[in-house]
Amino acid sequence: MQRTGDFRFTDISWHEVSHKVVDPYTTLSELLNKFLKIKEYGIILDYIFLIFIVDTATVHRARKYYSPKNKYLSVRRKLDYQKFVQANDSEALEMMALSFLDVIKQFPKWKIKDFDWQRLYADARKLFVEHHFIRESQP
Amino acid sequence: MQTLEKQPITTFISPSNQPKPKGNFRLLISLLIGIILLALIGVVIYTPNGEPEILPDRKKKLEDDLQKLENAEQYALIAQFSGLYPCPSCPDQDSIFLLKGEIWKYGYTINGAEGRGYSQTFFRKTGLRYIVQFRGNVGACMAEEKIKIYHYPTLPENLKRQTKLLRPPGNKEDR
């Protein structure tokens, strides 16, 4: 049950791929919630909520919402639909892991201050590499 | 200054002054004509042939709106986690235990999840997933939604329940 973790994920997806979407992000959130505590990187965030969009429709757009008052960051991320359809399980997991890391990299651009995003990025990346979600050589 | 002070005030506030209603009436008519003219100028343009046309931005909006009606989607909100979910369609309880992957609600929209009112907060709080099950014109999506709602009682996830539901937990009405 990840409804209350520091890293919470869900999806908006086309039914033909929806079965393929939920397992990788559940794996990701379980791993992140087991090993990382977001408060250790800054008290401005209680959790990060990420919605993966795996659909071709333009009506579902990427978006981010940061609430300093409620201390959470909510992000909608679009994954490349065609690439995702063709991906096997480990490639799907890799796409999501890289997408998550990319969200962390956006923190300075989104003006989320007083948060050690670089350390979170490094720790999450290390975890993903250790668990073979991504390759060491990947950016 | 003195002339202005003396003249109009006495004429205007006198109760026995008869032209007052007439003057107000004329003012009202003038105002109405003004508003109508302004409205006409503001909402219609004329082609070189003198044909009236709607404004280009309204034309574009109409095209976009019609396009949206052609690109609607029918969706299902499903449980991401096994646990308790609100149940507006339950006859005698406020919440229901859903297993991961079970249906909470069917719906259709022309504006996607966000346009339908499912904000990030909604997803964050509910723990639901949004699955697009069908895409087509709005009529076809409405039909798909209805078919799925009406057939919900026969789904295995509902059949196994002691108290079977007429509609999915999140569908209070057939709509």
Plain-language structure description:
The complex is a heterodimer of chains A (139) and B (175). By secondary structure, chain A is an alpha/beta fold. Chain A has one domain (7-130). Helix content of chain A is 42%, strand content 20%. Chain A has a 4-stranded mixed β-sheet, covered by helices on one side. In chain A, helix 1 crosses helix 3. The mean pLDDT of chain A is 92. Chain B is α+β, with helices and mostly antiparallel strands and 175 residues long. Chain B is 46% helix and 22% strand. Chain B has 7 helices and 7 strands, in the order H-H-E-E-H-E-E-E-E-H-H-E-H-H. The longest helix of chain B has 25 residues, at 19-43. Mean pLDDT of chain B is 85; it is low at 1-18. Strand 1 (7-14) of chain A pairs parallel with strand 7 of chain B, so a sheet runs across the interface.
Helix amount of chain A: 40-55%
- What class, by secondary structure content of chain B? alpha+beta
Which outline of chain A best applies?
globular
Q: Indicate the radius of gyration of chain B in whole angstroms.
A: 30 Å
For this entry, give a set of tags.
heterodimer, A: 139 residues, alpha/beta, 42% helix, globular, B: 175 residues, alpha+beta, 3-stranded antiparallel beta sheet, two-stranded antiparallel ribbon, 7 helices, disordered N terminus
